[in-house]
Every structure is written in C-alpha cells, then in structure tokens.
C-alpha cells in the first residue's frame, strides 16, 4: 500500500514570507497528524485531525500557523509570516483511527525540510 | 508533564556488536510505547509498538522491553550491521492527557555502525 505522501520535500524562504505544505495520508486512515521536528529534537505534535475535525491544536502557534483537512483526506499546513525559529522538518503522519486504547500505529511521511533565512 | 529521555545521545560501534538503547519516561501512565527509526532526510519508520499490558516485542534482530513501573524501555539490537546506522526515537502515548493519541518523543539516539 502507498505510504504517506508529502510535498515539497525541501523549501527555503526568507523570514516574513509565507509557505504551505501538503500531505496525503494512507488511504482509509481517519486520523492525520502534523509534527514539527527541530534539529536535534524529537518531533512535537502541532495539530491532529480526525476526519476533517480538529482533535488537538494545543501546541500550534495560531498567530502564524494554520492547517486544514478539507473532505477528511488531504491536509495543508501554512505558516504566515515565517520566523527564523520555524526552520525545522515538518512531518505528517496518519493512523487508522482514534480511541482510548490508542492501539493505532502512526505512519509517517518523509517530511518537508523548511529553512527560513 | 510527561518527559521522555534517551541515553546515550550518540553511539558508535563496530559491526557485529549487540547493543542496547535506553528510553525513560517520567509518568508511567501510558497506553503504549513505540520505537522508531529515522534515516537522514527521511521520515520515521515504526519498528516496534508495545502496549502497556505487554513486557516486550520482537521483530527480527530487534527486541524492545517495557517496564512501566520504573518508566523504562530498552531497544536491543543483535549483531549490528552498518545498515542499522540511523537515529532511533522512542515515543509514548500518555493516559493523563485529553489527547491519548498524542505521541511524546524523546530526543533520539544517533547510532553509527562501522564495518
């Protein structure tokens, strides 16, 4: 089966510019996650969708970051305006569902490496 | 607040050695623990998932153990190969969170296996 797809793979922008990332999850996966991974750190959850509803966006800097998952499939993550500290790898992941037992594994895409200069 | 720590931060070993990577977490109230592998420029690949009721999981040369009461997990890699060179991350799903699907990651162990 096809994995999680992300594009672009690399992006270089100047501070104060805007950028958007795209993610296509594994077919049939209801839950979609966006993580930010700063160099030398583990990934940090930015936002989680179940179908097209937001489950958790507690760590999303909402003054500059936004995300949507129209029709419950593809998702886009946008940064506007970008800051130097936004330089990171942005990972998208998906899983079959959500539940209290949290038995669903998350499958990750290759990531988008963003450099803000 | 759940915190995940991985020791060592980096490890360099000759091919053929058996090795152990360590992961510790501060709150034992977890649903599961996952070990991931991350190759440079690539995403994360899930290696093993241990449910909170389990003590260990095995896949090929990999064996992961979980001791919830002490807040520790180890990833054992037998007969290491140069192809095992990567960063290994552990992550937990916290029970004491309104979002129980959230993964909280450690900072990883960067492994290099040389011929």
Write a brief structural summary.
The complex is a heterodimer of chains A (117) and B (115). Helices cover 0% and strands 47% of the residues of chain A.
Q: Tally the helices of chain B.
A: 0
Mean pLDDT of chain A comes to 91
Largest sheet of chain A: 7 strands, mixed
Proportion in β-strands of chain A:
over 45%
Describe the structure.
The complex is a heterodimer of chains A (117) and B (115). Chain A has strands at residues 5-7, 10-13, 19-24, 31-37, 44-50, 53-56, 65-68, 75-79, 88-95, 107-108, 112-116. By secondary structure, chain A is an all-beta fold. The mean pLDDT of chain A is 91. Chain B is mainly beta. Chain B has no helices and 11 strands. Chain B has strands spanning 4-7, 10-14, 19-25, 30-38, 44-51, 56-59, 62-67, 72-77, 86-94, 104-105, 109-114. In chain B, the strands form 2 sheets. In chain B, strands 2, 4, 5, 9, 10 and 11 form a 6-stranded mixed sheet that branches. Chain B has a 5-stranded antiparallel sheet with strand order 1-3-8-7-6, with no helix packed on it. In chain B, a hairpin with a 2-residue loop joins strand 6 (56-59) and strand 7. Chain B is globular, with a radius of gyration of 14 Å.
Q: What is the element layout, followed by pairings?
A:
The complex is a heterodimer of chains A (117) and B (115).
Chain A: E1 5-7, E2 10-13, E3 19-24, E4 31-37, E5 44-50, E6 53-56, E7 65-68, E8 75-79, E9 88-95, E10 107-108, E11 112-116
Parallel strand pairs in A: 2-11
Antiparallel strand pairs in A: 1-3, 3-8, 4-5, 4-9, 5-6, 7-8, 9-10, 9-11
Chain B: E1 4-7, E2 10-14, E3 19-25, E4 30-38, E5 44-51, E6 56-59, E7 62-67, E8 72-77, E9 86-94, E10 104-105, E11 109-114
Parallel strand pairs in B: 2-11
Antiparallel strand pairs in B: 1-3, 3-8, 4-5, 4-9, 6-7, 7-8, 9-10, 9-11
Key features?
heterodimer; A: 117 residues; seven-stranded mixed β-sheet; four-stranded antiparallel β-sheet; B: 115 residues; mainly beta; six-stranded mixed β-sheet; five-stranded antiparallel β-sheet
């Amino acid at each position: 089966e096809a994995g999680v797809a992300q594009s672009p793979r690399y992006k270089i922008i100047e501070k104060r510019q805007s950028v958007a990332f795209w993610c296509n999850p594994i077919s049939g996966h209801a839950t979609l996650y966006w993580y930010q991974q700063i160099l030398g750190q583990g990934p940090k959850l930015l936002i989680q969708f179940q179908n097209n509803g937001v489950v958790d966006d507690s760590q999303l800097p909402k003054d500059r970051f936004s995300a949507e998952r129209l029709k419950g499939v593809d998702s886009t993550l946008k940064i506007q305006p970008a800051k130097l500290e936004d330089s990171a790898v942005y990972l998208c992941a998906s899983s079959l569902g959500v539940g209290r037992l949290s038995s669903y594994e998350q499958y990750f895409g290759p990531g988008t490496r963003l450099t803000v200069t | 607040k759940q915190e995940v720590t991985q020791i060592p931060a980096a490890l360099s070993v000759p091919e053929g050695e058996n090795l152990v990577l360590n992961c510790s977490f501060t709150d034992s109230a977890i649903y599961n623990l996952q070990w991931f592998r991350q190759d440079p420029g690539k995403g994360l690949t899930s290696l093993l998932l241990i449910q909170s009721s389990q003590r260990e999981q095995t896949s090929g040369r990999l064996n992961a153990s979980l001791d919830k009461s002490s807040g520790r997990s180890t990833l054992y890699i037998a007969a290491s190969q140069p192809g095992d060179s990567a960063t290994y991350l552990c992550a937990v799903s916290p029970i004491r969170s309104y979002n129980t699907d959230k993964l909280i990651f450690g900072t990883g162990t960067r492994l290099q296996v040389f011929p």
